[in-house]
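Hi V.,

You were right to ask for the full record rather than a summary. Here it is.
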Amino acid sequence: MNQICVIGAGTMGRGIAYLGAINGLEVTINDISQEALEQAKTYIEQTMHKSTEKGFISKERVEDYLSNLTYTEDLDKAVDQVDFVIEAVFENMELKINMFRQLDELCDNYTILATNTSTMSPTEIAASTSRPDQCIAMHFFNPVHKMKLIELIKGLDTSQETVEKAQELGRIMGKETVEVNEFPGFVTSRMNCLIGNEAMNMLMEGVASVEDIDKAMKLGLNHPMGPLELADLVGLDSRLRNMEYLHATLGEKYRPSPLLTKYVKSGRKGRKSGHGFYDYY
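Predicted structure:
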């Protein structure tokens, strides 16, 4: 396994591409937007140079790593003869299903199709293809190059061979993996969304300030990042979509906090908009 394609040049897609490139994989990044591809290229180059300054990768290898990356708007070209495709598009079921239909038609019959999703059903996505046994969900975490885990979520028809190939890709990328049987929210999102939602409700109720809620979780429960800080990092609009999906599939305890809904409607989306529970200007 040495050739992969990442579909989507947003925050997660470019992070996955960067991780693959510095671990010796040939990575093609595809997006429908040339601007998104250019932004991804800038991000990856800047991240790589920062990593050399901090001693995480050697300066002598930077050019080799950058040469592992190809950027293209042409989906047919992007998936030609690749071993593995990781879809990292917007967290929307219809969009993901349409993408998998296209990938199924364009990819070689040996290519594994993975969706990077934090909540959505790999079974439903895979059902749109003629190869559901070769489909799996790989849930990466942001920032991709720093977080140690990949959740591997098996759909109803995912084969053990596909699971093992996803585990192999995880090892190549220097990550630990956990194997999860499909259920809405998997392991991490199901737990994390509850914690974050309760933090938002406590803020709305005036229990404590943003800073003190996060400080309590970090110092009292040894979380590396507070739940409100983390929600800003993930994106409040993304968190709201996840909560709405979990509310629809798992019930009332996952009803989104009214404060989260209000923030998203006001345009406060976290780090990416410059303002969420914290200011980032």
